[in-house]
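Researcher: I'd like a structural prediction for the single chain below. Treat it as a standalone chain; there are no partners to consider.
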Amino acid sequence: MNSELKFLVDVGVGKKVEEYLKIQGYETKSVRDIDARMSDEDIIRIAVSENRMVITMDKDFGELVYHSDMEHCGVLLLRMENGTGTEKEEIVNYILSNYSDKIKNCFCVYQNNKFRIRKIKSILKERNR
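Model: Treating it as a single chain, here is the predicted structure.
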């Protein structure tokens, strides 16, 4: 386990993933427990203030991170619209078991059995050249 990783889990991800992360020893907070109707911008702001990576199923976070240049501590986007809680838990387990040392401060997407990690900071630097 990478003890540096802390998570803020968005509502759509589900309790099964939240419980899995806590059992694995990751410091985890749930948007559901703070304010289930919180805006995406506020979710990212809280995550940054507490140095947490956001786990979400909401594609809008890509827009915020890439195009609005919001500061962030990493986003894990699970593109599993029909995934069960157990399937999401298995994917998060797979990602953390294999990539926990590579995902901090990155924008990560799991979709169609593929996992991509993008370092946003390098993209921002290129854009500013």
